[in-house]
């Protein structure tokens, strides 16, 4: 799976202006099963998105559709989950 950290490079007011289309984008990929989890950083300097394993080209295409590309940089890390606490056991092998 992938963990993607978003780091805002624009003021939060610019981020807020794109929040509704960003949420629509998130919903589309939650519905397709590509996104596993997402949330804001605290303090609010960006966010985090977890996506299931997929070809890197597909990941790049999905991220390129996110309206937040106008306000955030993306740090992508591939993670191979081999152990997880019982409530998170479904993350193994995704």
Automatic annotation (TrEMBL):
InterPro entries in the cross-refs: Dimeric_a/b-barrel, YCII
SUPFAM superfamilies: Dimeric alpha+beta barrel (SSF54909)
Domain YCII-related: start-end pairs: 1-79
Transmembrane regions listed in the UniProt entry: none
Family per record: Belongs to the YciI family.
PANTHER family listed in its UniProt record: GSR2449 PROTEIN (PTHR37828), YCII-RELATED DOMAIN-CONTAINING PROTEIN (PTHR37828:SF1)
Entry protein name: YCII-related domain-containing protein
Organism field: Candidatus Pantoea multigeneris
